[in-house]
Amino acid sequence: MNLQQNKSLKAYNTFGIDQPAEYFAELVDIKDLPELTELPYRKHILGGGSNVLLTEPVKGLVIQNGLKGITVEKEDADHVWLNVAAGSIWHELVMHTAEKGWGGIENLALIPGTAGASPIQNIGAYGVEAKETIERVNFWDWDEKVFRTFNNHECRFGYRDSIFKHELKDKAFITSVVYKLSKQPKFNTSYGAIEQELEELGVKELSVKAIAHAVMNIRKSKLPDPAVIGNAGSFFKNPTIGRAKYEELYERFPTIPSYTVSDTLVKVPAGWLIEQCGWKGYRKGDAGVHAKQALVLVNYGNAKGKEIWDLSADILKSVNERFGIELEREVQPMTP
Questions:
Q1: 3 state SS of 299
Q2: pLDDT tens digits, residue range 14-55?
Q3: What CATH number corresponds to the domain at position 113?
Q4: Is 330 one of the catalytic residues?
Q5: pLDDT tens-digit readout, 240-260
């Protein structure tokens, strides 16, 4: 294991922000975790760097999760259980399952990041969330210095949320995730423009692979490629509000889109709220809001992390002033 000092993290975050880590190590063997535990530095974990904004130099030890591999743990006539190392690239996992015809995560194609981030964020898109397929999460407990396993219920999944963002924040290093996928999948095509895209692709018979490719086309048409323009995908969560609040807003803004969560709750697209406040396509220096999707903040080249964070604060303020809704960021700074 190679411990480096004053390591630039520019290549390790999808915003392409150049901030140094005081110490840096790539973990490729879980046997090194006990040794890392004994190092007297605060520990920060990086997966694909697609949900983090570097606003200042990072003190302590940044550990790049380099654990790779996909293993069939077991299978029966209807399902297959995959044990996926946490550093495996998420989209590569989706494509692997699509080729096999195993259903459950095809709607999550082209989401940046690694498999280890899927339970932390409970990643989701187009009507599907990771929690629907996650059976277990395996992790190293920094405090107890032991390997532990949580089942789906113990992970306390919520909307872009889990126990790993609360009680276990900075206390768990996820080593692998076990997904239960279906050999006879039930397809979810009602969300967004999936059905329209499938029609344009000329798909006559639904399949896991066809839906994955439809989702990829939709995402490519709306979202910038981090390899071209620095970004972390959706910067804000879609807010859930009370139905009474929604009815009040509907009176003032009849075109406001919504998705029913329950009899009393309604979800409103954050991108629409931000766009209505005039932010879509906004740019100040190299920090901006993407011209095709107001949910996405971008680095056009040399923006500082703090410039992007300050822009997000201005957006939060304007949405709250106009709609009375407090947006929540998905992307978080790596605390020094």
A1: strand
A2: 999 999 999 999 999 999 999 999 999 999 999 999 999 999
A3: 3.30.465.10
A4: yes
A5: 999 999 999 999 999 999 989
Is 234 one of the annotated active-site residues of the chain?
Answer: yes
CA distance 302 to 310: 15
CATH number (domain holding residue 311): 3.90.78.10
Name the catalytic one among 22, 26, 106, 330: 330
The answer to which of 154-158, 179-183, 185-189, 324-328 has the lowest mean pLDDT is 185-189
Q: Are 160 and 124 in contact (CB under 8 A)?
A: yes
3-state secondary structure of 271: helix
Phi, psi of 305 (to 5 degrees): -60, -40
Beta sheet of 4-8, edge-to-edge order: 4-8, 20-27, 58-65, 43-46
Q: What percent of the chain has pLDDT over 70?
A: 99
Range of the domain at 158: 70-182
Pairing of strands 52-53, 240-242: unpaired
Q: Is residue 113 part of a domain?
A: yes
User: Which residue among the candidates 88, 176, 234, 312 is catalytic per the annotation?
Assistant: 234
pTM: 0.90
Contact 263, 280 (CB under 8 A): no
Do residue 9 and residue 80 come from a single domain?
Answer: no
Is there a catalytic annotation at residue 190? no
| CA dist list (Å): 274 to 69, 116, 182 | 39, 30, 37
Total number of domains in the chain: 3
